[in-house]
UniProtKB/TrEMBL annotation:
Lineage, highest ranks first: Eukaryota, Metazoa, Chordata, Craniata, Vertebrata
Pfam name, any one: TMEM151
Segments crossing the lipid bilayer: 41-64, 85-102
Family as reported in the entry's similarity comment: Belongs to the TMEM151 family.
Domain of life: Eukaryota
Gene Ontology CC: membrane
InterPro entries attached to this UniProt entry: Tmem151 (IPR026767)
Protein name: Si:dkey-13p1.4
Length: 420
């Protein structure tokens, strides 16, 4: 059992036996009539068609129905719409027909912009995506809002007057990008084998990307790298925008694709002549349903599996870059404190206990004798190093800060200041 990278708990359609992966075969599925209507309802065209049919029914009722009328002691049979009422449904029909033609033009334009390919090129594209190396990326943007003013000229009763308008503008101050390093855990493509496209005259394909893990070890490694990346950027400014995603290197990924067995000889119901002829006869919606019914559908998922070569003893690349020897300031990685509720609360509230003067003088001497994080005084050395100031989550504008100064007598002088 593995965990999908798209956030849903599902089982991959594969079998792992003796270290060998057996992928299943995926084929296009021909849709039923009800599924075609539910998937591509074309509700605008359907509503306009029903309204036009209603107007045509009203006009036909006016023309074919005869009612008895009495006028000047004369009894005769005439149409119920003889007084000009027939022009009301005719006016509505003309207006709806114009909207209907515009909607058909937009539908045809979207169809022309859709990417089309033959079956062989689709198989080639799938093979390239299976062989491509994945890149799971993160992006963090630090920003704040600046209060600005501008002069705006308004007009009232023919007189022009100028007012000052206050607005807030977003200013980006820092942009950082990172990606998941999976060199020590291994990667393998476990996508299904796509077959059977040549059995259908047209196939609509939808491609999606996801990733998964074989066990909890590589998954925790991914979560640790992700948390370390965002924790390093957090606190650089008032706000932080986080983005993440997955892409395939050196691959032009397209989410939707329409495959034909022979693009030069498309089916008659997909031709431009058949489409506009049905549109003029107000039969565009039935033709669209027929097109969807004769088109097969397949949702193909590109799946990358991490952790096949995972070794528990392999250190993280970020841990290798960490200096060895005297750890000035006893820096504890943020990821190691994520499971500690009390430590997390102290970091968010920025209320760590400041060591006394005598404790501060002895902290650097203790680091050479013991590097264990289980020391009771190690929780106080986080705020000692002036170059690594602990910042709380999401600093607010106009917040009240507190600066602490350690005196030689061992006391702590507290000074409050306002910062913007």
């Amino acid at each position: 059992n593995v965990l999908f990278g798209d956030g849903t708990n599902k089982l991959l359609p594969l079998l792992i036996t003796g270290g060998t992966l057996f992928c299943k075969i995926q084929r296009p599925v021909k849709q039923s009539l009800g599924a075609c209507v539910c998937r591509e309802s074309h509700w605008r065209c359907l509503v306009l068609s029903l309204l036009m049919y209603s107007c045509l029914g009203a006009v036909a009722w006016c023309k074919l129905t005869r009612v008895t009328k009495i006028r000047h002691a004369m009894i005769y049979h005439d149409s119920p719409c003889s007084d000009g009422l027939i022009y009301i449904p005719l006016a509505f029909l003309l207006m709806l027909y114009v909207l209907y033609i515009v909607e058909c033009w937009h539908c045809r334009a979207r169809s022309e912009l859709q990417c089309k390919a033959d079956v062989d090129s689709v198989y080639e594209r799938v093979l390239r995506m299976q062989r491509a190396q994945p890149c799971i990326w993160w992006k963090a943007i630090s920003y704040h809002f600046v209060r600005r003013t501008r002069q705006v000229t308004r007009y009232r009763n023919g007189d022009a007057y100028t007012t000052t308008q206050v607005y807030h503008e977003r200013v980006n101050t820092h942009v950082a990008e990172g990606e998941f390093d999976y060199s020590h855990c291994g990667m393998k493509d476990v996508s299904r084998d796509l077959r059977g496209l040549e059995r259908h005259p047209a196939t609509r394909l939808r491609f999606t990307k996801c990733f998964s893990f074989t066990e909890a070890g590589p998954e925790n490694d991914y979560l640790n790298q992700r948390a370390r990346f965002f924790s390093e950027i957090e606190g650089l400014d008032d706000y932080m925008e986080a983005r993440e995603g997955m892409q395939l290197k050196n691959v032009d990924f397209r989410e939707n694709l329409l495959a034909y067995v022979d693009p030069d000889r498309v089916p008659w119901y997909t031709s431009q002549v058949a489409f506009w002829l049905a549109a003029l006869l107000m039969l565009s919606w039935p033709l669209r349903v027929l097109t969807e019914y004769r088109t097969a559908y397949v949702h193909y998922r590109i799946e990358k599996l991490f952790g096949l070569e995972y070794t528990h003893s392999s250190p993280s690349p970020l841990d290798e870059d960490r200096p060895v020897g005297r750890n000035i300031g006893c820096v504890i990685p943020r990821v190691d404190t994520l499971d500690s509720t009390e430590m997390e609360w102290h970091i968010r509230c920025n209320r760590q206990v400041i060591p006394s003067y005598s404790e501060a003088m002895l902290l650097n001497m203790r680091t050479g004798a013991s590097n264990s994080l289980q020391d009771t005084s190690s929780s106080n050395c986080l705020l000692l190093d002036s170059s690594q100031t602990a910042e709380s989550y999401g600093a607010l504008q106009n917040r009240v800060g507190t600066s602490l100064q350690i005196t030689p007598e061992g006391g702590v002088v507290q000074m409050k200041h306002h910062s913007k």
